[in-house]
Amino acid sequence: MNTIIYYTFLPMFDRLYTIASTEKGLAYVSPDDGSLIPLKKHFKDFDLQEDASMNAGSIKQLEEYTEGSRKEFHLDLDIQSGTPFQQAVWQALLTIPFGQTRHYGAIADGINNPKAVRAVGGAIGRNPISIVIPCHRIIGKGGSLTGYSGGIDVKKKLLAIEGIQQGV
Known about the structure:
Blueprint (H helix, E strand, L loop, with lengths): L3 E9 L2 E7 L4 E5 L6 H6 L4 E4 L5 H12 L16 H10 L8 E2 H7 L6 H9 L12 E2 L12 H10 L7
Parallel strand pairs: 1-4, 5-6
Antiparallel strand pairs: 1-2, 2-3
């Protein structure tokens, strides 16, 4: 039997985000505008089931974060969809405190692979749990705002929620 992915939708930042969980925890947060195509591509061998109740805790914490009343997420995460390298990068992103930023090289250093800066960038770009795994806190070494799967406009909003005015 395939693992079930329980999904629902949440409007944030003038977009519709897909929120999805497994029995292990939150597995996906992405601005898919109501299309299940990216979710199906990410979880190829899983069964999808719409179920808002399985994502209620995640939705509540995401809403609190976007309203500015939450600084940390307390959620079980399921990052099994990533390679061991991607999982290491995503775990490193989780150590970046609210209101702070890091550059790609710092993440590569943090996973003891300083030459893997480009690979770190690739892993960050494949982060399946945006906002909660804070890839928006990654900036260019010179302080520039770099790409973000949800769009630079959303990255600026997320950084502003955290009091980071850099590039905003």
